[in-house]
Structure formats: structure tokens, C-alpha cells
Amino acid sequence: MLLLALDTATPAVTVALHDGRDVIASSSQVDARRHGELLLPAIDRVLAETGLRLDAVTGIVAGIGPGPYTGLRVGLMTADTFGLALGVPVHGVCTLDGLAYAADLEGPFVVATDARRKEVYWARYADSRTRVTDPAVDRPADIAEQVGGLPAVGAGALLCPDTFPKAHEPEHVSAAALARLAAEKLAAGEELPAPRPLYLRRPDAQVPKNYKVVTPK
Q1: Bridge partners for 93 per DSSP
Q2: What is the pTM of this model?
Q3: Partners of 28 in the β-ladder
Q4: What string of H, E and C letters represents the secondary structure of the chain?
Q5: CA neighbor of 114 nearest in space, from 173, 55, 60
Q6: Which of 37, 57, 134, 208 has the most C-beta neighbours closer than 10 Å?
């Protein structure tokens, strides 16, 4: 097994290689505006670090969000393209699940990432491997009663101390955590879903309401 894991659902552009036993190389850079620029060089970097070629990869793991439309689609399109070119399966893993796995907390807790517009993407967890609610997007004040008092991880939690007073790192997802979680599930015989994006809301860019299409006569 050689899994190439990647995620661009948060400001972190993160890539890792997992050889079936553990992560053998990883790279993470935080830059919300340069997902497209940073992802392929990061993949080249982790491959060069191990001396492996891309055609040695036996599977792709992609973080499926939730996340902003523009950033998220960079990772998912790259994963789909590599999977098609290499003829290997592409597995989707919820980005929030990767953060929960990296947090390695016992007992109930919350993962919340920054959804912008003064909102968070969030979900509740029974433990680091068990999500108990579907990913959602809400204003922190609207979910305060549901999450109040619970430990929380992720950038969304750290940005909203009134709602998440027990917030701490990790701030962003790491592909290393995604790879370890995916490898663990695959080794246990679990089927991972296809990498379908969790956008949860429409993209920020919208066609103006009074937009007129002008065609030549």
C-alpha cells in the first residue's frame, strides 16, 4: 500500500504519503489564497523526500470538506485526475474527521473550521473516530447551546472563544492524519466513500440578478 493523501478544504495545503504502516513524508503550508499554486509542488516534495515516483502510489485519499468552493475543488480535482491517470482508487474522507482523529481526544467534543461569513463548519464527536452529527454550517451563536462546555478543536473554534471556551489545537487538518485514518479504515475492511465535495452552501461568487447575456446578431 502507498497512499497519497491531500486536503485543500481549509487554508492549509497539506499532503502526505502512507506506506501501509505509517506516514513516511508530509508537507503542510497555510495560505488560503494559493491552493492551486502550492498543491502540486507539495506532492512533488513528499515524493522526492521518499525517493518514490508517482506511479508507485496505489490509492489516493482526498479531504472532502466541508470547505469553501474554490479551495476544496482544487484538491478534489487533483485527486480525481491522479486516480484516473494512475488507474487507482480515490477515497474520500471528511476533513472534520481528519481533525478529530488528529486531536485524539476521549469523550465528547466538537470540531469546527472557519467557514467565513462569521460562520463555522462543525460536527460533534463521541471520540476521535466516531462522528455523531452530520457536518453543518452555522453561526457560532446559533449552536452555543448544543456545543457549550465541550472541548473543541479547529480554526473555527479558536476564532470563537465565547462559543468554544475550551478550544485548542490542531487548528487545521493535516494530510498525515487523513492518511492514517484512511489506512486504518481500509485495513479494517471498511469501504471509504467516493470523493464527493461537502460544500454545504453555494459558492461566494454569484451571477448578478440583472445580468444580461449579450450575443452578436
Answers
A1: 63
A2: 0.91
A3: 14
A4: CCEEEEECCCCEEEEEEECCCCEEEEEEEECCCCHHHHHHHHHHHHHHHHCCCHHHCCEEEEECCCCCHHHHHHHHHHHHHHHHHHCCCEEEECHHHHHHHHHCCCCCEEEEEEEECCEEEEEEEEECCEECCCCEEECHHHHHHHHCCCCEECHHHHCCCCCCCCEECCCCCCHHHHHHHHHHHHHCCCCCCCCCCCCCCCCCCCCCCCCCCCCCC
A5: 173
A6: 57
Read off the C-alpha cell for 147. 456545543
79-113 pLDDT, tens digit per residue, is 999 999 999 999 999 999 999 999 999 889 999 99
Which grid cell sits at 143? 449552536
